[in-house]
């Protein structure tokens, strides 16, 4: 059992400079891709798994079969693959619940290795959503929409993310995401 307050590995709890060797927890998505409990769909290009610590009622990860470590490794040649990942995201979201709103995107500074797109319903109703970091990682610009990643790749042939600036976003005060929410004092438009 985990001690109270201990960070669950794979949930943005890595010490700066930690090594990512084979078998390290940050490689966990690779074994989850073959785990029948988590794997929900696959085709010749991608595997779709359930997020092991879902931050909403429906939370999936879509991973390419091609070995791509992260956003920084993307090149123009991956545009078609990313469009396919986006299309599979729409399909799995519709299958999960047509009435819920979903977002499709990537964490700017992912904690887990191997490129993965999050497909997450916007209810954020989950016992695993426990920390400010979790909330901010899905509700600030730290979460980059798949369409924006595709735009960057099409325009520049690469994806640029600023690690320091993005890590600051995780520390931002909690803000409500409901547009014009009158209950939320920190809403600043
Ligand atoms: P990130 O790397 O920040 O994009 O997020 C990694 C996501 O992977 C988080 O939403 C975790 O809940 C999830 N996760 C961590 N470990 C595993 C695992 N072994 N299998 C499936 N999902 C995982």
Model description:
The chain has one domain: HIT family, subunit A. It has a 6-stranded antiparallel sheet with strand order 1-2-3-5-4-6. The chain is α+β, with helices and mostly antiparallel strands and 189 residues long. The longest helix has 18 residues, at 79-96. It is 26% helix and 15% strand. The chain is built from 5 helices and 6 strands, in the order H-E-E-E-H-E-E-H-E-H-H. It has helices at 28-32, 79-96, 132-139, 146-156, 163-170, and strands at residues 39-42, 46-50, 59-64, 102-107, 117-121, 143-145.
What percentage of the residues does DSSP assign to strands (E)? 15-25%
Q: How many strand segments?
A: 6
Low-pLDDT runs? 1-6
Query: Strands across the major sheet, in which order?
Result: 1-2-3-5-4-6
Let me know the average pLDDT.
Answer: 89
Helix-and-strand structural type: alpha+beta
What is CATH's topology name? HIT family, subunit A
Structure summary:
This protein has helices at 28-32, 79-96, 132-139, 146-156, 163-170, and strands spanning 39-42, 46-50, 59-64, 102-107, 117-121, 143-145. The chain is of the alpha+beta class. It has a single domain, classed as 2-Layer Sandwich (HIT family, subunit A).
Features:
binds adenosine monophosphate; 6 strands; alpha+beta; 6-stranded antiparallel sheet; 5 helices; disordered N terminus; 189 residues; HIT family, subunit A
Describe the protein's topology:
Layout: H1 28-32, E1 39-42, E2 46-50, E3 59-64, H2 79-96, E4 102-107, E5 117-121, H3 132-139, E6 143-145, H4 146-156, H5 163-170
Antiparallel strand pairs: 1-2, 2-3, 3-5, 4-5, 4-6
């Amino acid at each position: 059992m985990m001690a109270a307050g201990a960070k669950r590995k794979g949930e943005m709890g890595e010490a700066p400079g930690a090594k990512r060797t084979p078998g390290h927890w940050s490689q966990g998505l690779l074994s989850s891709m073959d785990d029948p409990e988590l794997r929900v769909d696959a085709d010749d290009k991608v595997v779709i798994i359930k997020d092991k610590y879902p931050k909403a009622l429906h939370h999936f990860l879509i991973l390419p079969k091609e070995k791509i470590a992260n956003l920084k490794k993307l090149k123009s040649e991956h545009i078609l693959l990313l469009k396919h990942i986006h299309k599979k995201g729409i399909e799995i979201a519709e299958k999960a619940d047509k009435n819920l709103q979903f977002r499709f995107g990537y964490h700017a500074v992912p904690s887990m290795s191997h490129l993965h797109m999050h497909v997450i319903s916007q209810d954020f109703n989950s016992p695993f959503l426990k920390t400010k970091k979790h909330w901010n990682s899905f509700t600030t610009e730290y979460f980059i929409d798949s369409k924006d990643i595709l735009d960057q790749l099409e325009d520049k042939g690469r994806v640029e993310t600023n690690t320091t600036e993005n890590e600051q976003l995780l520390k931002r005060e909690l803000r409500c995401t409901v547009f014009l929410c009158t209950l939320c004092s920190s809403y600043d438009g």
